[in-house]
Design goal:
There is one protein chain. With 717 residues, the protein is of the alpha+beta class. It has an eight-stranded mixed sheet with strand order 11-16-17-24-21-20-18-19, with helices on both faces. Strands 1, 2, 3, 7 and 8 form a five-stranded antiparallel sheet that branches. A five-stranded mixed sheet has the order 26-25-27-28-29, with helices on both faces.
Length: 717
C-alpha cells in the first residue's frame, strides 16, 4: 500500500478523496456488522458501491491494473473492512470482486489507512554547500582578480576596438566592463572569449607588478587611447603608489593587486563565463552605457560543480517567484520601482516578525521610540550624512522656504532626543530601538526584489553609554542578535571585526578602548572572528555578522558600530560623578539590517515552507460540503480567539483540489472536515510533508499549536 500511494501521480488528489471516504465508510460498515452480526451487510444496497470504491475505482485511480501495487491497494482496502480477498482476475475482466459466504479466512490485522499526500514524494532538504569565499581564501581572491584581467586581455585580442574600464572580484566570481564602441556582445562571443582565455592560461604568462610615476602612467595610457584608464588614474590620491600589472609582455592594466604568480594558477575547468549585461560608467545613467561580462572561477572543478548546484537550488527559491506564488508582496512599477507593497499574507508575516522584535527588545531593556520621516536638511549637514551620502539621498523639498530632506537613516533623530535634556552618568546606558522606514536613492538598474529597494524599514537601535560600559553593552547586543537570528533558524555565522582606518576622528585612547571592548565581548561569547585591519568606519570600529542560509549562501545582516562622530558633532554630554561634562559613547546596531531584505532572505532560506510560528496561515479547514461550513466557521472563530491563524476553504471545488491548493500554498496544517468531525466536534489533522496525524479535539489542536509555536517546532502528536 505504501508503495502504491507514495508514487507521484496526477490522480493523487482523487486517491486522497477515496481514502478519506473509505475510512468513514469503513467505520459505518463496522457499526452495522456489529449490530447484526454481519448479516445486515449482505442485504445492504450500498455493498456494491463500497466494493467498487475500495477496489475497482481505487485501483484505476492509481493508474495500475493487475500489478502487485494494485493488489496491495485492493488488499488494504478490503482488509480494513474485514472482507476476504478474492483471487486475482484474469486480464481484461472487470467484474466486481465476489463475496465468499463460507467461513472467514484468517487475515493479517487491518492496517490503518492514512490520507495520501497530493505532493510528489518528499525530497530531502537541500544540504548547505560549503564553498570557500574571498574572505577565507586569499588564493581564491587572487585567482578571481587575475581571471578578470585574463578575460579583458582575451576580449581585446578578439575585439581590438574594445576599451577596458574596471574588473573587480565579487562574491562568486568577477566581472569586467567594456566600452565596445557601438558594438555589443552576443552569446556566441562568450564561447570564443573563454576559448581565448584558455589559450592565455596555458601560455603560463607571468604576472608582473610595476610601480610607475603618474606622468609615466599617463603617457602609456594616452598611447593606448584608453580614456577610462585616464579617469581611473586621476582618481588615485596623490602620494599613493601607481602600480601596473602586466600579463607577460603583451597586456597591462592599472591595478593595486593582488594576483597569482602566473596564469597557470587558473584552472580552466573551474571557469565559466555566465552572462552579459549593461552597466553605466561609474553607475551614472548620464554616462556611457558599457557591456559587462560576468564570470565565475573556483580553485577546482568540484567547487564549480558545487556552486552550480547551489545556484540551481537558489533559482528555485527566488523570493520574487515564491512571493508572487504565495501572494506575499509585490513591486508595483506603476507606483515606482523599489517600493514594496505588502499583501495581506505578507503583511501578516511582517506583523509577526515585528511584534516578536518589539517584545524581545522591551524584555532586554530597550525603550521603543518613533521619529519623523522628514527633517530640515540642516540636520543631515550637521550629522555629516549630507556630505558623505548625498548621492544616495533623494532631492530636498521646499517647505515654506526651508529645504526638507526625506530621511535616509534614523541616527540623527535619536541623537536629538538624547540632547533634549542634560543626562547624568546615572542615566546611562540608554537603549532606544526603532523600526524606522528610510528612503535612499538607488538607480533603477540596481533594484532587485526585496534585496535592493528605495524604501525600507531598518531595525535600528542606539545605545548611549559610558566608556567603561561599552564591553558589557556590546556583549548584550551580541546575545540579543544570537537569540533573534536563531529564532528564525540561523545559527551559522561569519564574524568580522573592522579596526581603525588611516583617516578617522577621535583620540587613540578612545579607539583603543572601543576596539578592546569589541574584542572582549566576542571573546566572552567564544566567537571566532576575522580582523579587517583598517576596515572600520571613520567614526569608529565595528562588528559585521553574516548568516549562512539553507543552501550555503552568506548574507550580510547584523552590524554593531561604535560611533565617536555624532556625539562630537552634536555636542552630546553627560554629567560625570565628579560633576564634569563628559562625552558618551554611541553604539549603532541593526540585527535584520532591513525588514524587507531579511524577509527576502527568509523566503529563500525556507523556500516559502515557513515554520509554524510565523507561517501566514497555520491551519486551513477543508470543507467536504456546504453542510459542514457552519462548523468550520465556528472552529475558525475559536482558533482566532486563541491567536491561531486559521482559515476555511469554502470554494466549490473537489476535496482533492482543496488539498492540492493547500500544498501549493505551503499551509503547515490542514484538516478535512466531514459529517463525522461535525458530530464528534473534532478535527482530522494533516501535516504538510507528513500526512494524516489523526483526529483531535479542538482543545488538543489549540494546545498543540501553541506548544509548537512556543518551542518553534512542528505540530506534535
Amino acid at each position: 500500500f505504501k508503495e502504491a500511494t507514495s508514487r507521484a501521480s496526477p490522480f493523487a488528489p482523487c486517491l486522497s478523496v477515496l481514502l478519506w471516504t473509505e475510512r468513514h465508510t469503513r467505520e459505518r460498515i463496522r457499526a452495522v456488522m456489529s449490530a447484526s452480526r454481519g448479516h445486515a451487510l449482505l442485504k445492504s444496497p450500498c455493498l456494491p458501491l463500497v466494493l467498487v470504491l475500495s477496489a475497482t475505482m481505487l485501483r484505476a485511480a492509481t493508474g495500475f491494473m493487475a500489478s502487485p501495487s494494485s493488489l496491495l491497494v485492493r488488499r488494504a482496502a478490503l482488509t480494513a473492512t474485514r472482507l476476504p480477498v478474492s483471487p486475482p482476475r484474469a486480464a481484461g475482466l472487470r467484474t466486481a470482486p465476489r463475496l465468499s459466504l463460507g467461513p472467514r479466512r484468517s487475515l493479517p490485522p487491518a492496517t490503518p489507512l492514512r490520507m495520501a499526500s497530493t505532493e510528489a514524494p518528499v525530497k530531502e532538504e537541500a544540504e548547505p554547500i560549503v564553498l570557500p569565499t574571498n574572505e577565507n581564501s586569499p588564493e581564491l581572491l587572487k585567482i578571481r582578480h587575475t581571471t578578470a584581467h585574463v578575460m579583458a586581455m582575451a576580449v581585446q585580442r578578439l575585439f581590438p576596438k574594445a576599451q577596458v574600464t574596471i574588473g573587480p572580484w565579487i562574491d562568486y566570481g568577477f566581472y569586467y566592463d567594456f566600452d565596445m564602441q557601438g558594438d555589443a556582445f552576443e552569446d556566441k562571443d562568450l564561447k570564443a572569449i573563454k576559448k581565448e582565455m584558455i589559450k592565455i592560461v596555458n601560455k603560463n604568462y607571468e604576472l608582473r607588478r610595476e610601480v610607475v610615476s603618474r606622468d609615466e602612467a599617463k603617457r602609456r595610457i594616452e598611447e593606448l587611447g584608453e580614456k577610462y584608464k585616464l579617469e581611473l588614474l586621476d582618481a588615485i590620491p596623490e602620494g599613493e603608489d601607481i602600480s601596473i600589472y602586466h600579463i607577460g609582455d603583451e597586456w597591462w592594466d592599472l591595478c593595486a593587486g593582488p594576483h597569482v604568480e602566473t596564469t597557470k594558477g587558473i584552472n580552466p575547468k573551474a571557469l565559466e563565463l555566465q552572462r552579459v549585461s549593461g552597466a553605466y560608467w561609474r553607475g551614472d545613467e548620464k554616462n556611457a552605457m558599457l557591456q559587462r561580462i560576468y564570470g565565475t572561477i573556483w580553485e577546482n572543478p568540484e567547487q564549480l560543480k558545487g556552486y552550480k548546484k547551489m545556484m540551481e537550488e537558489a533559482k528555485k527559491r527566488d523570493h520574487r517567484k515564491i512571493g508572487k506564488e504565495m501572494d506575499l508582496f509585490s513591486i508595483q512599477e506603476s507606483a515606482g520601482g523599489g517600493l514594496v507593497f505588502w499583501h495581506p499574507k505578507g503583511g501578516r508575516m511582517r506583523n509577526i516578525i515585528e511584534s516578536f522584535w518589539k517584545d524581545i527588545h522591551v524584555e532586554r531593556g530597550y525603550d521603543l521610540v518613533y521619529s519623523p520621516h522628514i527633517a530640515d536638511v540642516a540636520l543631515w549637514k550637521t550629522s555629516g550624512h549630507y556630505d558623505f551620502y548625498q548621492e544616495s539621498m533623494f532631492d530636498t523639498m521646499d517647505v515654506e522656504g526651508t529645504n526638507y530632506q526625506i530621511k535616509p537613516m534614523n541616527c540623527p533623530f535619536h541623537v536629538l532626543m538624547y540632547r533634549d535634556e542634560l543626562r547624568s552618568y546615572r542615566d546611562l546606558p540608554l537603549r532606544w530601538a526603532e523600526l524606522g522606514t528610510v528612503y535612499r536613492y538607488e538607480r533603477s538598474g540596481t533594484l532587485s526584489g526585496l534585496f535592493r529597494v528605495r524604501g525600507f524599514t531598518q531595525d535600528d537601535a542606539h545605545v548611549f553609554c559610558l566608556p567603561e560600559q561599552v564591553a558589557d553593552e556590546i556583549e548584550n547586543i551580541l546575545d540579543l542578535t544570537e537569540d533573534i537570528l536563531s529564532r528564525f533558524g540561523f545559527s551559522d555565522y561569519e564574524v568580522n571585526l573592522s579596526t581603525r582606518p588611516e583617516k578617522s576622528i577621535g583620540s587613540d585612547e578612545i579607539w583603543d578602548k572601543a576596539e578592546a571592548a569589541l574584542v572582549t565581548a566576542m571573546d566572552r561569547k567564544g566567537w571566532e572572528y576575522k580582523v579587517d585591519e583598517g576596515g572600520g568606519a571613520f567614526y569608529g570600529p565595528k562588528i559585521d555578522i553574516k548568516i549562512k542560509d539553507a543552501v550555503g549562501r552568506v548574507w550580510q545582516c547584523s552590524t554593531v558600530q561604535c560611533d565617536f562622530n555624532l556625539p562630537e558633532r552634536f555636542g552630546l554630554e553627560y554629567v560625570g560623578a565628579d560633576q564634569s561634562r563628559e562625552r558618551p559613547i554611541m553604539i549603532h546596531r541593526a540585527i535584520f539590517g532591513s525588514v524587507e531584505r531579511f524577509f527576502g532572505i527568509l523566503v529563500e532560506n525556507y523556500a516559502g515552507d515557513f515554520p509554524l510560528w510565523f507561517a501566514p496561515e497555520q491551519l486551513r479547514l477543508l470543507a467536504v460540503n456546504d453542510d459542514v461550513l457552519p462548523y468550520c466557521d465556528e472552529v475558525v472563530a475559536a482558533m482566532k480567539k486563541e491567536g491561531i491563524r486559521a482559515t476555511v476553504d469554502s470554494q466549490a471545488a473537489s476535496l482533492g483540489k482543496k488539498i492540492r491548493n493547500a500544498e501549493l500554498q505551503k499551509v503547515p496544517l490542514t484538516a478535512v472536515v466531514g459529517v463525522k468531525e461535525v458530530e464528534d466536534k473534532t478535527l482530522a489533522i494533516r501535516q504538510r510533508k507528513v500526512g494524516d496525524l489523526g483526529s483531535f479535539s479542538l482543545d488538543d489542536v489549540k494546545s498543540k499549536i501553541h506548544a509548537a509555536v512556543d518551542e518553534n517546532k512542528a505540530f506534535n502528536t
